[in-house]
Amino acid sequence: MLFEIEIPTREEFELIDITHLINQKIREADVKEGIAVIFTQHTTTALFINENESGLLEDLKEFLQSLIPKGKGYKHDRIDRNAHSHLRSILLNPSLAIPIKEGKLLLGTWQSVIFVELDGPRRRRVFIKLCQC
């Protein structure tokens, strides 16, 4: 089963917890045990698993902004001035594979699936492939 969720972003750099959206699709599909593959096909977005804690998320933003600053004279900026967004996404992942147990993502106590917008605001799509096994 393949599902698509739309994520409207409001900021240039935004971190959005999408765990509940994925678990909702798992419930809709009635998958009890299996695996979820989550994928974003945009080259200026990413996904990661970590704690959804405001201080940590701000630290991540500051870390990526200091590591790969906007407007540093990147060659790709000649095209559309978003090279920093592409470079930041390379450090993260476009996809995740997470086991499903008892009808929901098998995440640790503090783990969440975070969608990363690096070149917003835009309307983004995330695909969720659910395999029951």
Automatic annotation (TrEMBL):
Species whose genome carries this gene: Thermococcus aggregans
Annotated family: Belongs to the UPF0047 family.
InterPro entries, per the entry: UPF0047_YjbQ-like (IPR001602), YjbQ-like_sf (IPR035917)
Protein name per UniProt: Secondary thiamine-phosphate synthase enzyme YjbQ
